[in-house]
Amino acid sequence: MSKQTMLVNAASYHECRIAVVEDSKLEELYVERASTQSHVGNIYLGKVTNVEAAIQAAFIDFSTGRNGFLHISDLHPRYFPGEDENTAERVGKKTPRRDRPPIQQALHKGQEIMVQVLKDGIGTKGPTLTSYISIPGRYLVMMPNMQNMGVSRRVEDEEKRREMRQVLDSLDTPEGFGFILRTAGLGRSKTELKRDLAYLMRLWKDMQARRKKSGNKPMELYAESDLLTRTIRDVLNKDITRIIVDDISALKRISRFLRVIAPRSGPELVYYDHATPIFHAFGIESQIAAIRSPRVPLPSGGGLVIEQTEALVAIDVNSGKSRASLDAESTAYNTNMEAV
Predict the structure, then answer these.
(1) Which residue, among 70, 64, 54, 145, has the nearest Cα to 111 in the 3D structure?
(2) Which neighbouring-strand residues pair with 180?
(3) Are residue 65 and residue 213 in the same domain, yes or no?
(4) Of 2, 120, 269, 316, which sits 20 to 30 A from 110 (CA to CA)?
(5) Which of 70, 67, 61 is nearest to 217 (CA)?
(6) How confident is the model over 252-296, as pLDDT tens digits?
(7) Are residues 97 and 175 in the same domain?
(8) Does the CA dihedral 142-67-127-33 come out positive or negative?
């Protein structure tokens, strides 16, 4: 089994960078700048400010100073006429658009609603919201007001999906919640999954307690983790055997989080304390520069030229100096295969 190392460059106040490296080769890169504040994944108690029948959408004040956009297709059935807080929907069986009532019959101005940010606002457009709430854990995703359990769509192998469903069926899950087993949950013990379930339930109870104290005012109920915690939660797997960190504060945060999500099977934690920046020391900066270059060399001597325009991204495949094949058609085919 391949062994990977996670490098955490958190010494800069301006940004946090995390690289996953295998055999000195950069496999994954995650970057978050301190100036770029994202609300994606955050959950809020909001209030309907306007309902627009013409576009079948509502605008929601959710305490960030900018109203969000909620389309009828992202409205949970518990807000439909005649339904209540106990109305649930099956995991993976979203109510079709044709079976949904007009939004003006489901929502009204001033109504309280719990929403989650799907997409940050761009330009003059506000954030895109949903009332289908999902709270990610290390191995499970919890969805209030949903029924049944499912398996991550990333798992395409039917045999593995059956194994994962059997694991889910063995859990004693609370009523009124749906769950999806993430790919990281495959092969985990029942004890590990129960620990993750208990963690998610604590988050939900904390959200409910904050909601009761809100006084019906829009407020934040849950904030998605920053890049450091989010990457450890979502990316860390059995292949990553070491995490090397260049900031002592970040190291302590990772250590605390690992004690919660992987108290027995966590990777080795190493503090990097050298004059040479961590990404330079491990040869990552040069690989990042190559990623950002519009020209990508191919082994045979050809290359890719990638140009981004306002309407599209153009990728030109050139055979260049490649002369390994006997004819032009074979050269073009081999170059295209390398590009893929």
Answers:
(1) 70
(2) 141, 150
(3) yes
(4) 120
(5) 61
(6) 989 988 887 777 778 999 999 999 999 999 999 999 988 888 888
(7) yes
(8) negative
